[in-house]
Amino acid sequence: MWNATRWYLPAILLGIYPVVTVIGANLGVVPLTPSIVARSLAFSAGVVVVILIGLRMVQRDLARRASWLAWLLLLLAFYSAVVLLAERLGYVNVYAGDPGFAATYGLVAAAIATAVSRPWKTHAREPKAFLLVAVGLVLVTLAPGLVAAARGRAAAWRPAADAVIAGSLSEAPRGAVAPERDIYYVVVDGLGRRDVVEEFYEVDLAPFADDLTARGFYVAERARANYAQTFLSLASALNMTYLDAIAAEVGVSAEGRQPLMYLIQQNALMRAASRAGYRVIAVGSDYMATERFARADMCLCSQHGLDDFELAALELTPLAALPAGWLREDSYDAHRRKVTDSFAGLEQSAALAGPKFVFAHLMVPHPPFVFAADGAPRHPRGGMFGDGDGFPGSRAEYVAGYRDQVQFVTARLSAVVDAVLRAPGPRPVIVIHADHGPGSRLVWNDPRRTSMRERFGIFAAFYFPDGPAGLYPAITPVNATRVLASRYLHANLAVLPDMSFFSTWNRPYNFLRVPADDPPRSD
Question: How far apart are alpha carbons 170 and 172 in whole angstroms?
Answer without folding.
Answer: 6
